[in-house]
Design brief:
The complex is a heterodimer.
Chain A (H helix, E strand, L loop, with lengths): L2 H10 L2 H35 L5 E5 L3 H8 L10 E2 H8 L4 E13 L2 E6 L2 H5 L4 E4 L7 E4 L1 H7 L6 E2 L2 E2 L13 E7 L9 E5 H14 L32 E2 L1 E6 L3 H13 L2 E4 L1 H44 L1 H9 L4 H36 L17 H25 L3 H6 L2
Parallel strand pairs in A: 4-10, 6-9
Antiparallel strand pairs in A: 1-12, 1-13, 2-11, 3-4, 3-8, 3-12, 5-9, 6-10, 7-9
Chain B lengths: L1 E11 L2 E5 L2 E3 L4 E5 L6 H8 L7 E6 L2 E2 L5 H11 E4 L11 H11 L6 H10 L15 H14 L4 E5 L7 H18 L2 E6 L2 H4 L5 E3 L5
Parallel strand pairs in B: 4-9, 4-10, 7-8, 8-9
Antiparallel strand pairs in B: 1-2, 1-3, 1-5, 5-6
Helix pairs in contact in B: 3-5, 4-5, 5-6
The chains are: A alpha+beta, B alpha/beta.
């Protein structure tokens, strides 16, 4: 027998009360854990996917939309820009490198992106199988695309027009899978990569027999055939050809100040910074997160209050117990500690249960949504802030038990025991 | 063994009750008699180190107990004095064995299962070791509370109306037990009571005068 066991036996002797208090505590803590895990991992994922991208240049419109479509590949593109303008930008002395992106097609819900070989190296992607595209109509699949669709090197597939729903397929020409990338836990896992020229060629076929769908911002193309493709830099084409957007890397930090202004003021294109836009996105989401957080803290406060009330009530029944313990040699401070320990045990167990529950919730959330943007978020990542949560719960336990513990400390043995 | 001198007690300073000097030698059995409200419980609490007197001295085994500071007095009480109350006041969250283990723990003594079994066996409670408190009859519960009082081998056993809520048979049994156990440990026994049944069982008595 020791003080822990004693407190534990008292907690066990009131199972319903204890269950309620632990549940309340666990509920509040689990909401905080879910928010922490999600925001931390989403932020990490967002910044990982934007690594090395200083600026995205595309058609005028919402800068957030441009970032979402060109960096994270979730929203629709803002439109297309002229190749001519892209070439002008490439010559700017503030620009170190430009990676073109041509979008507009998809296959089974996975986006087909025309780009050059700088794109896979930007994400430090390695090939699991085969090689990168080197000719027209060759495509390389992201790890998840290959896994979900079950495609292998050498397989052929026909891309569909539009990036969300399958509508019209490019029947005349098929892509040939020449390589499959290793999983990188980043956006390209879910992309089909090919050359800009291949995307152009697909649409040449397409435009000959179909009117342009204005809602899908597919790349316009002229009627030239491209047999050679560009592996580095911008593709060669005439003034009419277009790409969807450009990933820009700065030559110097100075460019961060000058280049966006130059582009936004002097061209028909817009420049958006992934860092700035994701920060803006988070500040928008922040309101919702704070709301949930406030709710979680409210539940934790109620849990503390409930523990306080339960302890105060139980002390009424336990006056004799406390007086007897004093008569048996327990010092005042021992009784104080005994009650504090009860608060600590309940909130401590509640915190551990809450952390476990939070991780399970995140696991279930990502498990049922493995195809969405939640992919790559794990319920089994433990973060430093969880130690703070345990600390917070213990403080709640101490605060809730403080007044009851003080009244236990003040127990007047003789007065209680003479009132038989 | 137990010496009380110049003791006075009062709930307010203006109205103090003087308590007669008293000296009780080791191993004596004494019944402290008086009507309810005569101050028996108060005197017992003062002797037991539960209630500090306004002035005067209580010395037990050569130690002036109120000269001890807070937690030292708690430990002294735990190791020298066994208390039995009118009601058993066992801790219901714990079973019989744990109630007794707690008694050893709070006194700062080693937790000794053999000692617990020995005391329970002496009191005819050997089979109640693992019982929950609310499974015990009143007489059994009172005997467990006696076991608790005896567990740490006290020099002084104080019992406050230990028979008040028991029937004749159980009350005689409890007094018998207290006497025989006190003899076994060579302890002084003081039983405060207004129960006439006790009077006949304990020849040596002290009559409390009405205080108010």
């Amino acid at each position: 027998m020791n003080l822990y066991q004693l407190s534990w036996k008292y907690i066990k002797s009131k199972p319903l009360n204890t269950f309620l208090n632990i549940t309340l505590m666990a509920l509040g803590i689990s909401i905080i854990v879910v928010l922490l895990l999600l925001s931390q991992q989403v932020e990490e994922k967002l910044s990982k996917n934007a690594q090395g991208i200083d600026l995205v240049v595309g058609a005028k419109g919402s800068p957030l939309q441009l970032i979402l479509s060109s960096v994270y590949h979730v929203d629709f593109p803002t439109g297309n820009i002229k190749l001519q303008e892209a070439e002008k930008l490439a010559k700017n002395r503030l620009v170190k490198n430009i990676i073109p992106l041509a979008m507009g097609d998809s296959y089974s819900g996975f986006r087909i992106v025309g780009t050059n070989h700088d794109y896979p190296s930007l994400y430090q992607l390695t090939l699991n199988e085969g090689r990168l595209w080197e000719n027209v109509n060759e495509a390389v699949l992201g790890a998840e695309v290959a896994a979900v669709l079950g495609l292998k090197v050498g397989d052929l597939f026909e891309g569909a027009h539009g990036i969300s729903n399958e509508s019209h397929t490019h029947e005349e020409q098929a892509y040939e899978v020449v390589g499959i990338l290793s999983a990188s836990q980043s956006v390209p896992d879910r992309l089909i990569l090919t050359s800009v020229e291949t995307v152009w060629a697909m649409h040449e076929e397409h435009e000959t027999d179909e009117a342009i769908d204005p809602e899908s911002h597919e790349t316009h193309a002229d009627h030239h055939h491209h047999d050679e493709i560009t592996l580095k830099g911008l593709p060669k084409g005439d003034s009419l050809q277009e790409v969807t957007s450009l990933i820009v890397q700065y030559r110097s930090p100075m460019a961060a100040i000058q280049l966006p202004r130059q582009i936004n003021a002097n061209t028909n294109m817009q420049a958006a910074s992934p860092a700035f836009e994701t920060a803006r996105l988070f500040s928008l989401l922040g309101i919702g997160i704070s709301l949930f957080q406030g709710f979680a803290y409210l539940i934790i406060f109620i849990a503390g209050l409930s523990i306080f009330i339960a302890l105060i009530n139980s002390l009424k029944e336990r006056r004799y117990d406390l007086a007897i313990m004093r008569s048996l040699g327990a010092s005042r401070s021992k009784l104080f500690l005994h009650i504090i320990l009860e608060g600590l045990l309940i909130t401590g167990i509640g915190a551990l249960a809450g952390i476990a529950l939070g991780h399970c919730l995140v696991f279930l959330l990502t498990w049922s949504n493995s195809q969405s943007a939640a992919a790559g978020i794990s319920g089994f990542v433990f973060i430093f802030e969880e130690l703070w949560i345990i600390g917070l719960s213990l403080v709640v336990g101490i605060l809730a038990a403080l007044i009851p513990a003080w009244s236990a400390y003040k127990t007047d043995i003789s007065k209680v025991l003479s009132k038989e | 063994m137990l010496k009380i001198s110049k003791l006075a007690f009062g709930y307010t300073k203006s109205k103090l009750f003087e308590i007669e000097d008293l000296e009780i030698s080791s191993g004596q059995h004494i019944a402290l008699l008086g009507q309810s409200g005569s101050g028996k419980t108060t005197l017992l609490h003062i002797i037991g180190g539960l209630l500090a007197p306004e002035r005067g001295e209580v010395s037990l085994a050569g130690q002036s107990i109120y000269a001890l500071s807070g937690s030292k007095l708690d430990t002294f009480r735990a190791t020298h004095i066994g208390l039995v109350f009118q009601k058993p006041h066992l801790i219901k969250a714990l079973n019989v064995a744990d109630n007794l283990k707690l008694t050893q723990y709070l006194a700062g003594l080693p937790q000794d299962n053999e000692r617990i079994k020995e005391v329970l066996t002496n009191l005819g409670l050997a089979d109640k070791l693992k019982s929950q408190i609310n499974e015990l009859s009143q007489g059994e519960a009172q005997r467990v509370s006696i076991a608790r009082a005896l567990l740490n081998r006290p020099k002084l056993i104080l019992a406050d109306e230990p028979t008040a809520s028991l029937d004749d048979l159980n009350s005689a049994k409890v007094i018998d037990l207290l006497k025989s156990q006190a003899d076994q440990y060579g302890a002084t026994l003081i039983i405060a009571t207004h129960d006439q049944r006790v009077k006949s069982l304990i020849p040596q008595t002290i009559e409390m005068q009405q205080l108010s």
